[in-house]
């Protein structure tokens, strides 16, 4: 599965990529970015959602984010360059729907798994380890968020990863 099914509202916008020439990295970047933007918008709550038609209903978009993230390979290499995790961590601080938090935790786990030298020190610096610990200890935390959080926290305690952010 591509991670975006026919019912997901962003599918028409994603048809524009050339399947033969675009790399898997390019495709995951498009989907990751789209889901991230929607996660940030949805984290503000349904009362802030301004799209009225059924195809773009708040719940439909949340379902699409969840289905997309669940289909992604956590070890996908991506060419993204964050200077700070604060925008992602904001989603973990607010009371927002599960798919938004799933996207945020997946993003942190993926980045810390694939570019540990760059992103683990950033996670530590920005307070992400504490937020992930708090999130996974919540009694209502879903298993997959606990699992991803645990992977990321363990990576953050890896003594082979220095305190300084590697420039790439």
List key phrases describing it.
single chain; 168 residues; mainly alpha; 57% helix; globular
Q: Summed up, what is this model?
A:
With 168 residues, the chain is mainly α.
Which secondary structure elements does this structure contain, and how are they paired or packed?
Blueprint: H1 11-14, H2 24-42, H3 58-71, H4 86-93, H5 98-114, H6 116-125, H7 128-137, H8 143-156
C-alpha geometry? globular
Question: Helical content, roughly?
Answer: 55-70%
DSSP strand content: under 5%
Care to count the β-strands?
A: 0
Question: Could you give the order of the helices and strands?
Answer: HHHHHHHH
Kindly name the structural category: mainly alpha
Unreliable stretches (pLDDT < 50, length at least 5) are 1-9, 11-21
What gap, in angstroms, lies between the N and C termini? 31 Å
Query: Main β-sheet, in a few words?
Result: none
Mean pLDDT: 84
Instruction: Give the C-alpha Rg.
Output: 16 Å
Number of helices, counting only DSSP H or I runs of 4 residues or more: 8
Structural account:
The chain is mainly α and 168 residues long. It is 57% helix and 0% strand. The relative contact order is 0.13.
């Amino acid at each position: 599965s591509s991670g975006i099914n026919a019912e997901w509202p962003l599918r028409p916008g994603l048809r524009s990529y050339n399947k033969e020439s675009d790399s898997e990295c390019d495709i995951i970047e498009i989907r990751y970015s789209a889901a991230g933007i929607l996660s940030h918008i949805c984290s503000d709550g349904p009362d802030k959602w301004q799209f009225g038609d059924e195809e773009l209903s708040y719940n439909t978009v949340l379902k699409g984010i969840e289905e997309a993230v669940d289909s992604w390979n956590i070890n996908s290499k991506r060419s993204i360059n964050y200077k700070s995790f604060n925008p992602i961590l904001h989603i973990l601080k607010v009371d927002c729907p599960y798919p938004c938090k799933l996207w945020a935790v997946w993003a942190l786990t993926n980045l810390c798994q694939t570019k540990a030298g760059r992103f683990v020190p950033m996670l530590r610096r920005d307070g992400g380890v504490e937020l992930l610990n708090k999130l996974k200890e919540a009694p209502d935390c879903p298993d997959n968020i606990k699992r991803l959080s645990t992977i990321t926290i363990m990576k953050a305690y890896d003594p082979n990863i220095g305190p300084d952010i590697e420039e790439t």
